[in-house]
């Protein structure tokens, strides 16, 4: 059965400033949606607010998966309803190993180490990284790939990938994009990828592209939209000052 | 202190090296127990310490090993057993390793123990009352590949154990000093480590005494040229857990990495003290102290970095993080620097507070409950201490720590 993620009228404040000003988006399982926009347009705020980051205050709006409202729920409950945020800068958690995190998250421990190694191989991550503490002393690219290992094991209904392409070289980006694309058929995962680089789109074919500016979606279209962005940049998408 | 003095007197009677012991005993009697007016003991609940109720053991008791001790032994290359301060087994013969029972009262630093520890009443008591020194010598150039386990078991009401570990030039070894038992007992261990030129000692002190024990421990590393001491001290048990861990970088290039951690629960007091003494140039010390206090427990960490004139290009770092797991728990942190040389690099940082909110959020965002996230992070303190251990040993200690943590209350402040 297909699931639906629906974001409606989402308004979010960071450090006293309203950054998301009524964000709307709806997507279904197995779809790939890409949010593009210049720096400061509110992309990362969207990602953090969805995952319940303590520094982001939701002022208004609704986020549901299959009709269940997530905004009043703890970060844990949101994750358990099928939402996963792969972070732009995954945090270091000293003393905690990835396998212990996953078991605590409720993953079946049977053969888990081997399943993690298989996932690591798919994104070209050295398996010894899995034995280190979560993200501690990892390079930027290793962290991104380590997040993808968690993604492959946790199998969320919807994954939000915040700048998953930054810090990755071309080969690694290809491997990560392939892994994401495969998830859309493997367990019908819905992918919401946030980026300001077009190169991710060369590897991961989007169902829809949403252009974001000043805290809301200003244009939505098919893959052809990225060609417009390539040619004209974000300038034509700036909202008309009111 | 009738019982204690009487049993000490019967113990001292006829011991080898009786003169030196009598001298130490006289020094103890003259000084008496310290009080909290003494800066070094100001956080200790000394008023609750009634020495009179302890007996000095005249022979080791007999009790089977705990399941944990047995598992630890299975992973060891050599097991040295010390019961109530008496070395009862020096273990199987091992190439390049010599284990002796040494009746003298000399310090590895060259002086007598009494001279060396004259200002420390409990160390003086150890000098008088430890049955003997368990002396472990690793020969020059020998790399001992499997861990040496020193099982330190306390069954009687007081025990004074003394361990000296000597690493010859270019040798290396991993040693676990493990403490258990000690119900309603006074446990006063004293350890010294002399690490020769270019030698490397990896040391784990794991204290799992009964929650009613008084544990007053002291360790000192003496590091020669390019020697390395990597020491992890884990304190879980005891009513009062005093752990003083010193290192003296005597020759150029010596390096000390010390990690200490504790978990306080109930009404425990954890009192950690460190002293890194840099005497020679190009010496390094890195200290990481992390601990968590729950319920009504208290902790204090007092660390001194001392750099002598001439210890040029010394690099000394000290970090202390304390975690409060209950509004009624309390932690103090007292870092001190004493630097008499200009050409040095020195840094210290300390913090007291609740768990890192963002780290916790990261775990929660993966579907880990808040309670489990906090437990994982606290376990992490201990796991970090074990990061360099041989895997099967680390896993064993981790499982043990995890079982203790499962019983601790975490109350968000």
Describe the structure.
The complex is a heterodimer of chains A (242) and B (413). With 242 residues, chain A is α/β, with parallel strands linked by helices. Chain A has a domain at 4-89 and 158-237: P-loop containing nucleotide triphosphate hydrolases (Rossmann fold, 3-Layer(aba) Sandwich), CATH 3.40.50.300. Helix content of chain A is 32%, strand content 28%. Chain A is built from eight helices and ten strands. Chain A has helices spanning 43-50, 75-80, 98-104, 112-122, 140-154, 170-186, 199-203, 224-232; strands at residues 4-14, 17-28, 32-36, 56-65, 68-69, 83-86, 158-162, 190-195, 208-213, 216-221. In chain A, the strands form two sheets. Chain A has a six-stranded mixed beta sheet, with helices on both faces. In chain A, α4 (112-122) packs across α5 (140-154). Chain B is an alpha/beta fold. Chain B has one domain. Chain B is 21% helix and 39% strand. Chain B contains eight helices and 21 strands. Chain B has helices at residues 2-12, 18-31, 67-74, 113-116, 121-129, 357-364, 370-385, 391-405; strands at 78-83, 86-89, 97-102, 133-138, 148-154, 158-159, 162-167, 172-181, 186-187, 190-195, 200-207, 214-223, 228-235, 240-249, 255-264, 269-278, 284-293, 298-307, 314-324, 330-339, 344-353. In chain B, strands 3, 4, 6, 7, 9, 10, 12, 14, 16, 18 and 20 form an eleven-stranded mixed beta sheet that branches. In chain B, β1 and β2 (86-89) form a beta hairpin. In chain B, α2 (18-31) runs antiparallel to α5 and α6 (357-364) packs across α7 (370-385). Chains A and B meet through α2 and α3 of A and α6 and α7 of B.
Keywords:
A: 242 residues, alpha/beta, Rossmann fold, 4-stranded antiparallel sheet, 8 helices, B: 413 residues, 11-stranded mixed sheet, globular
């Amino acid at each position: 059965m297909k699931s639906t993620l629906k974001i409606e009228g989402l308004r979010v404040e960071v450090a006293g400033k309203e950054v998301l000003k009524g964000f709307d988006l709806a997507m279904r399982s197995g779809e790939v949606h890409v949010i593009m926009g210049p720096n400061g347009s509110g992309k990362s705020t969207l990602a953090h607010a969805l995952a319940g980051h303590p520094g982001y205050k939701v002022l208004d709006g609704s986020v549901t998966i299959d009709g269940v409202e997530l905004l009043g729920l703890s970060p844990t409950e949101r994750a358990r309803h099928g939402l996963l945020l792969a972070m732009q800068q995954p945090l270091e958690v000293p003393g905690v190993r990835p396998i212990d995190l996953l078991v605590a998250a409720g993953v079946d421990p049977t053969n888990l180490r081997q399943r993690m190694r298989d996932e690591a191989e798919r994104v070209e991550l050295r398996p010894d990284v899995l034995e280190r503490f979560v993200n501690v002393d990892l390079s930027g690219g290793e962290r991104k790939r380590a997040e993808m290992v968690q993604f492959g094991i946790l199998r969320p209904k919807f994954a939000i990938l915040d700048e998953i392409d930054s810090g990755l070289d071309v080969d690694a980006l290809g491997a990560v994009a392939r892994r994401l694309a495969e998830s859309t058929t493997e367990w019908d995962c819905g992918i919401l990828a946030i980026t300001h680089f077009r190169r991710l789109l060369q590897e991961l074919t989007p169902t829809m592209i949403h252009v974001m500016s000043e805290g809301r979606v200003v244009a939505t279209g098919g893959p052809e939209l990225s060609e417009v962005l390539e040619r004209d940049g974000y300038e034509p998408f700036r909202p008309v000052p009111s | 202190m009738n019982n204690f003095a009487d049993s000490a007197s019967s113990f001292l009677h006829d011991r080898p090296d009786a003169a030196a012991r009598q001298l130490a005993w006289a020094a103890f009697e003259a000084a008496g127990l310290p009080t909290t007016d003494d800066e070094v003991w100001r956080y200790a609940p000394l008023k609750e310490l009634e020495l009179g109720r302890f007996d000095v053991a005249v022979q080791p008791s007999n009790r089977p090993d705990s399941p944990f001790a047995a598992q630890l032994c299975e992973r060891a290359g050599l097991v040295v057993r010390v019961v109530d301060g008496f070395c009862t087994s020096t273990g199987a013969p091992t190439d390049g390793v010599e284990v002796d029972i040494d009746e003298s009262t000399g310090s590895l630093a060259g002086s007598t123990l009494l001279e060396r520890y004259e200002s420390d009443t409990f160390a003086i008591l150890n000098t008088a009352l430890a049955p003997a020194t368990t002396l472990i010598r690793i020969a020059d150039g020998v790399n001992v590949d499997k861990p040496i386990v020193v099982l330190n078991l306390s069954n009687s009401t007081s025990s004074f154990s003394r361990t000296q570990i000597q690493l010859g030039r270019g040798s290396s070894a991993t040693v676990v000093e493990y403490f258990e038992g000690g119900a309603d007992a006074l446990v006063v261990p004293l350890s010294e480590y002399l690490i020769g030129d270019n030698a490397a000692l990896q040391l784990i002190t794991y204290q799992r005494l009964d929650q009613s024990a008084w544990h007053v421990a002291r360790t000192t590393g003496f590091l020669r040229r390019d020697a390395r001491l990597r020491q992890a001290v884990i304190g879980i048990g005891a009513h009062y857990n005093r752990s003083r861990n010193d290192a003296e970088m005597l020759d150029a290039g010596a390096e000390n990495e010390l990690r200490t951690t504790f978990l306080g629960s109930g009404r425990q007091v954890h009192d950690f003290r460190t002293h890194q003494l840099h005497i020679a140039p190009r010496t390094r010390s890195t200290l990481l102290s992390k601990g968590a206090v729950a319920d009504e427990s208290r902790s204090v960490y007092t660390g001194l970095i001392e750099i002598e004139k001439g210890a040029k290009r010394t690099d000394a770092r000290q970090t202390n993080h304390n975690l409060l797991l209950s509004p009624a728990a309390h932690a103090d942190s007292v870092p001190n620097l004493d630097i008499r040389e200009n050409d040095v690099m020195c840094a210290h940082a300390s913090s007291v507070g609740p768990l890192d909110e963002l780290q916790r959020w990261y775990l929660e965002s993966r579907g880990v409950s808040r309670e489990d996230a906090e437990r994982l992070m606290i376990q992490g303190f201990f796991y970090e201490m074990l990061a360099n251990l041989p895997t099967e040993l680390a896993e064993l200690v981790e499982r043990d720590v995890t079982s203790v943590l499962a019983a601790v209350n975490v109350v968000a402040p």
